[in-house]
Design goal:
- With about 240 residues, the protein is an alpha/beta fold.
- It folds into two domains: about 80 residues, 60s Ribosomal Protein L30, Chain: A (2-Layer Sandwich), CATH 3.30.1330; about 150 residues, Alpha/beta knot, CATH 3.40.1280.
- The chain contains eleven helices and ten strands.
- The strands form two sheets. Strands 7-6-5-9-8-10 form a six-stranded parallel beta sheet. Strands 1-4-2-3 form a four-stranded mixed beta sheet.
- Strand 6, helix 8 and strand 7 form a beta-alpha-beta unit.
- It is elongated and about 55 Å long.
- The model has no long low-confidence stretch (mean pLDDT about 95).
């Protein structure tokens, strides 16, 4: 499950750590196929583990270290089934949606899911060139947001065809100041690749090119993709009130 080809073959992924294991055990959105934990953790969580007694296995610290991807394994590891999501077009058409064009860093992907979760954004769509959602580093850095935000691979041209009236906002350098826009109730916010930005084809599909204004004294050439997403989502949500 640490390798993409096996996650895709078996349609499974790994969730590690006490906090996320507890969340996923209490969630009904993800099926659990196996729980591997230290005996003391199992003993301390008997009540919530009762429905999973047949798939819960006690292991040693050394065994957990062998199967864990973390430098410091954290008591429990779950094997979960990759869910199949359907798209609710009414949610897409009546909310802000994030579209990721070629995001490669797992930490950025996970952080963007956390941002979407914070701002109650129901969907994050990804181009086929994005890092895989169920990469363990993405799951870990999302801090459980993957349970509440539906993340799917979908071409933006399909979204454009299905929701032709939904404005597309491409985050680019030199665009319109995001804080100068009139209130926006809906739309698709496009965030591009960490090094190359948004592809020309996706920019061409956008209705607006927007940017976060830099202070006159600012020296940085650009912002981290996740940081920029957080600022832009905050601006959108503020404008929607």
């Amino acid at each position: 499950m640490q390798q993409k080809k096996f996650r895709q073959k078996y349609r499974n992924f790994i969730v590690e750590g006490e906090k996320m294991a507890s969340e996923i055990i209490q969630s009904s959105s993800i099926a659990i196929e196996g729980i591997y934990a230290l005996p003391e953790w199992i003993a301390n969580n008997k009540s919530v583990l009762q429905p999973f007694s047949t798939i819960t296995q006690a292991i040693t610290t050394k065994e957990l270290e062998r199967i864990s991807k973390l430098k410091t394994p954290n008591k429990v590891l779950c094997i979960c089934k990759i869910p199949t999501y359907t798209i609710d077009s009414s949610l897409v058409n009546n909310n802000l949606t994030i579209y990721l064009d070629g995001i490669q860093d797992p930490g950025n992907m996970g952080s963007i899911l956390r941002i979407a979760d914070w701002f109650a954004i129901p969907y994050v769509f990804c181009s086929a060139s994005c890092v895989e959602l169920y990469n363990p580093k993405v799951i870990q850095s999302s801090m459980g947001a993957f349970l509440r935000v539906r993340c799917l691979v979908k071409d933006i041209t399909e979204i454009k065809q299905e929701s032709p009236n939904l404005p597309i906002f491409a985050a680019v350098l030199g665009g319109t100041n995001i804080f100068s826009l009139p209130p926006q109730k809906t739309g698709i916010l496009v965030i591009g690749n960490e090094g190359n930005g948004i592809s020309d084809a996706v920019v061409a599909l956008s209705d607006h090119q927007v940017t976060i204004p830099k202070a006159k004294e600012g020296g940085a050439e650009s912002l981290n993709a996740a940081v920029a997403t957080g600022i832009l989502c905050s601006a959108f949500k503020q404008n929607r009130e």
